[in-house]
């Protein structure tokens, strides 16, 4: 990918930024957002958390956690249905 970008944008500088792999914190953040596609976001987290790899020597940025449960705009909990 870096080579393709370098071909298209010569003299560019690409910097990779990684966040810690903290699924519990991410889950709380997803629930806090309470978007229309909340369940899709939670499914994506479940799927990709195992695939997310941080290269050796990289210090990841911490994920900021959040504790309240998910609520929709009316203040009601929105459970995901499988």
Give structural attributes.
3 helices, mainly alpha, 82 residues
What does this structure look like?
The chain is mostly helical and 82 residues long. It has a domain of 56 residues. Helices cover 35% and strands 0% of the residues. Helix 2 runs antiparallel to helix 3. The radius of gyration is 17 Å and the shape is elongated. The termini are far apart.
Summed up, the helix count is: 3
Please give the number of β-strands: 0
Could you tell me how far the N terminus lies from the C terminus, measured between alpha carbons in angstroms? 36 Å
Unreliable segments of 5+ consecutive residues: 69-77
Largest sheet: none
Q: Give the CA-based shape.
A: elongated
Backbone CA Rg = 17 Å
Average of per-residue pLDDT values: 83
Question: Strand portion, in percent?
Answer: under 5%
Measured as a percent range, the helix fraction is 25-40%
The helix-strand sequence is HHH
């Amino acid at each position: 990918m870096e080579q393709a970008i370098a071909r298209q944008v010569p003299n560019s500088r690409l910097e990779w930024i990684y966040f810690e792999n903290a699924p519990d914190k991410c889950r709380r953040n997803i629930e806090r957002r309470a978007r229309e596609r909340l369940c899709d976001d939670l499914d994506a987290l479940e799927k990709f958390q195992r695939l997310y790899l941080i290269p050796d020597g990289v210090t990841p940025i911490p994920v900021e956690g959040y504790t309240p449960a998910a609520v929709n705009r009316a203040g009601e909990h929105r459970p995901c249905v499988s």
